[in-house]
Design a protein that fits this description.
heterodimer, A: about 140 residues, alpha+beta, 8-stranded antiparallel beta sheet, 3 helices, about 15% helix, B: about 425 residues, mainly beta, Cathepsin D, subunit A, domain 1, 7-stranded mixed beta sheet, 5 helices
Chain lengths: ~140, ~425
């Protein structure tokens, strides 16, 4: 089902944040964050995997139309979530602030947006996806 | 299952002298329904309490610490409501709770050191000071500590603010400070000594001009217990069990050292489960899957794991928690970490726990802050977060990295 391909490193200067933005923002993130990039094509989407200098792995999922519909992270330091989540970072912050005692856990489950985060110091992980933009037939379990 | 399956005991000790660092009031301690016994006062025993704390939280464990300016016996202060967190490393105090005057650490150019502390959903920002820190009767001398929310460092760097919500007040933080006693010796470790990529440490020439810097491990935030002169190889976290529907508070003990004193002898029945160096991960076998990035965390207020059979709560007061129609029980196996990602050939221990409806728990008695059956959803299918409810009714041994004990070298958990 998968076939691996290396993505070209594009001289993109767009500063769009990732989630909900065009694919070009992935290359922009790579440049901005100094990350190495590997792309893997699946039937319904492509996973762009960035390894940040901190060692943290970031995955950005693009649909056929080029839109980033999901992001995920896992590693010893959090990525710049304001950049990765773009306009949805405000939802992350609002959820964090409204979660009782939720410093070490975050879960937002809305009809349009899911954001979840967990782990602990030196071991952080999380994900976010736009429910309506997830390609047909793709399980949310794949977006990790 | 129902509540009767759990051992029922509500321990509501009164007269807990949180300022009294000499130990448990009453002396003889209390018995836990899980078969454990909470020890009495001693030099290496800190009283702990699970209650609502200053911000009305649940399943959060606190103690008190006494801090002094290094070498001083007068510039001192005892601070209550310090959260005990095995998920982070380092002592951090909210500036608003701090009256002692502590020296801020400086780099070789004279710039003040500050930290952007990353938690899962939030960050805390503030300078790094030095303090002599006493817990029970054990002292960590000249310990780097963070002062969170210091008004002299009011400008949070943008890269720090981009990591989550700001928790720089007691109300937002839910505590006057946090005592991070993770298995890792430092909060960042070698990576922050070599690179600024993690975004933890900064040098500030003024309170509003801070730039990322590398910082050697010796100057980073440290596990305070490892700085004690004795009883520094680990801790034992002991809490009584609680009735399934919740209680108002629990009183327990944080015991320093493993097999270093007559009161911290390791149990012959405790199984040693080595964890992954640097992450504290071990493996949990649950629902037919191996969760290879699992961990024990007193700083998490529930059992967190992905299970699509459990309904998530819809009420905003229980965001992120599970609200199953009926209480659901789980059997799991916790085993030592290994790269192969399973439990074959390594030590393991069986556990069981239950997840109840969080809406119901929270509404039964709004004064309750101890809920042993609280759980919630998780972003990954590879991790179970065994939060504070896991510790109820158990004596949990935690050995630090680079430390040896009579049961083997850290890092490990044993229970």
């Amino acid at each position: 089902m998968t076939l691996a391909a290396l993505a070209a490193i594009l001289p993109v200067t767009a500063v769009h944040a990732a989630l909900g933005a065009p694919y070009t923002s992935v290359a922009s993130d790579q440049t901005k964050l100094g990350a190495s990039l590997k792309a893997t094509a699946h039937d319904a989407y492509t996973v762009h995997e960035l390894t940040l200098p901190s060692g943290t792995l970031v995955r950005e999922y693009t649909a056929a139309n080029g839109t980033v519909f999901a992001v995920a992270w896992n590693g010893p330091a959090k990525p710049d979530l304001s950049r990765l989540l773009g306009s949805y970072f405000a939802d992350f912050v609002a959820t964090a602030e409204s979660t009782p005692g939720g410093r070490n856990h975050l879960s937002l489950s809305r009809s349009d947006l899911v954001i979840q985060a967990g782990g602990h110091m030196r071991a952080f992980f999380g994900r976010a996806y736009l429910v309506a933009a997830v390609p047909a037939g793709v399980s949310s379990d794949e977006l990790r | 299952m129902n509540a009767s399956r759990l051992f029922v005991i509500a321990v509501l000790l009164v007269g807990l002298g949180a300022c009294d660092k000499s130990g448990l009031s009453g002396g003889s301690g209390s018995s836990g329904g899980g078969g454990n016994s909470i020890p009495g006062a001693a030099a290496n025993v800190a009283v702990t309490v699970v209650n609502a704390g200053p911000a009305g939280d649940v399943n959060t464990m606190f103690t008190s610490v006494t801090i002094c300016a290094p070498g001083s016996t007068t510039n001192c202060q005892t601070i209550e409501n310090i959260e005990i967190d095995t998920g982070s490393t380092g002592l951090r105090i909210l500036a608003s709770a701090l009256t002692a005057n502590l020296p801020i650490q400086q780099d070789s150019s004279g710039a003040s050191l500050a930290e952007c502390t990353q938690f899962v959903s939030s960050y805390s920002w503030g300078p790094i000071a030095l303090a002599d820190v006493t817990i029970a009767s054990e002292t960590a001398a000249s310990l780097p500590v963070q002062v969170i929310g210091d008004s002299s460092f009011a400008s949070v760097p943008a890269a720090c603010a981009g990591t989550g919500s700001e928790e720089d007040t007691v109300q937002a933080f839910g505590a006057n400070g946090i005592l991070g006693i993770a298995t890792e010796a430092q909060d960042c470790g070698a990576s922050c000594a070599e690179s600024t990529a993690a975004g933890f440490y900064y040098a500030c020439t003024t309170g509003t001009n801070c730039v990322p810097v590398t910082l050697g491990t010796a100057n980073q935030l440290q596990n305070p217990v490892t700085f004690f002169a004795t009883d520094n190889n680990g801790v034992i976290i002991e809490l009584p069990s609680a009735t399934a529907t919740g209680v108002q508070s629990l009183t327990g003990a944080l015991i320093f050292g493993i097999d270093t004193e007559s009161n911290n002898t390791s149990s012959a029945t405790a199984t040693v489960l080595p964890v992954q160096v640097g992450t504290g991960y071990l493996t949990v076998s649950l629902n037919g899957n191996f969760y290879t990035e699992s961990f024990l965390d007193t700083g998490s207020n529930g059992y967190y794991f992905a299970d699509s059979s459990l309904t998530e709560c819809s009420d905003s007061s229980a965001t992120g928690f599970y609200c199953p129609a009926s209480t659901t029980s789980f059997s799991a196996v916790v085993c030592a970490y290994q790269d192969s990602g399973n439990c074959t050939g390594v030590t393991e221990k069986s556990i069981s726990f239950s997840i109840a409806n969080a809406d119901t728990l929270f509404s039964t008695n709004t004064a309750f802050a101890v809920f042993p059956t609280l759980g919630g959803s998780y972003p990954t299918a590879s991790s179970v977060d065994l939060g504070l409810p896991f510790f109820y009714g158990r004596n949990v041994y935690e050995a630090f990295e680079n430390k040896s004990t009579s049961k083997g070298s850290g890092p490990y958990y044993a229970f």
